Amino acid sequence: MGITVAIVGVGLIGGSLGLALRDCPLVERVVGVDVDRRVLAEARAMGAVDACASLQEAVASADVVFLCCPMEAVEQLLQAMAPCLRAGAIVSDVGSCKRRVMEAFARCLPPSVQGIGGHPMAGAETTGIAGSDRYLFENAVYVLTPPPGVAAASMERLQSLVAATGARVLVMDADTHDVLVAAVSHLPHLVAAELVRVASRQPEALVLAAGGFRDATRIAASNPGMWEDIIFSNREAVLGQLEAM
Amino acid sequence: MGITVAIVGVGLIGGSLGLALRDCPLVERVVGVDVDRRVLAEARAMGAVDACASLQEAVASADVVFLCCPMEAVEQLLQAMAPCLRAGAIVSDVGSCKRRVMEAFARCLPPSVQGIGGHPMAGAETTGIAGSDRYLFENAVYVLTPPPGVAAASMERLQSLVAATGARVLVMDADTHDVLVAAVSHLPHLVAAELVRVASRQPEALVLAAGGFRDATRIAASNPGMWEDIIFSNREAVLGQLEAM
Fold it and tell me: pTM, whole model, 2 decimals?
């Protein structure tokens, strides 16, 4: 029998994951959960999910749950879903910092459920289901951060699903992940936002901006609330890299 | 009778300028000067110049001289060409900092020659004649920084030539230019180089780098020697913007 997947939060990443997993022969069914009913309707119309359900209903039938929500919502959702999760289920996420999520898994999940952190190194400046892309993960690195003593069968199952999206799976511990992404993702976002702020103090400056400035600051167009959340969550590692700079 | 243009330094910018100006009806002849004979031969084969000559020969016949050399070479070239320049000639450059060049013009050029700073806000990570592009300046901003009391006829002549490359001419004083490019060009280059350096301290980090890191650091692939020269020349303004950041 195939795997039932629940995707909690059907935005850019959740929608793209749904589109990719529905093409995967291992997967029988993808169930979408979202606080916004219009988003769910769009996800279904786009073919990103087979069905929609409440959080509790969705996780009760799921073999694998992907939390694709903002990081600040992770802990609350874990608490809400914990009583309904099946024994043997896997819960993963797609957040940009892994230590905080691994701690939340340890606090909230029952021992019969395996929490394994995940971080696809793919995205876009856009957000929302409308930007979803079946091939968003194709050839992208997708980091998995298992807890110490993870069940081998759970890890294999999650790796197979992730590999089915076209991503290249990379396994490392949460702390290593957080230091590395601080260098290649969080610090560059912070710096791009600052470059825009500094240049904008002199409005005439932007008239002189050429392709170099455009590319160097492209990522500053990302969702500021989401990035505040990410950088704050990973503040120790980001401060370390900022200090090095 | 048409204008004779001398291009001193036939690299990416000089070659592109030559290609564009040879298409301009105002221009009768483009003469190339370079320390490297192979570069001159390539420039001629590509149609970037009509002829090649020594510095002294080229400027002796030129109505307009474009210095397209590294900034550190400007003053020495001005001294070498000054005795040979025609009365009424215009000397311009394409360097990224304008105050230092304007000072060199004032020191080196005879009173009968007009020195007007220039800075095309276009370029590429590549250097050299092989990367030259007839349309490099198309729709790019091209800043001109005339000295106080510039002769109107000289300014008009230079503006017409620059406009003929497809660029949009913007006139401002050298100090304003230097502060603005520190914000939109020099600081972003410095920061991109630092982002690469910080990330490279942990070689595994680059495996996690996605499109955001690639774009944010694209300009770090520029010629380091040239950028050291540029940032050092404009250090006051760059330090001011760095402080703001």
Answer: 0.76
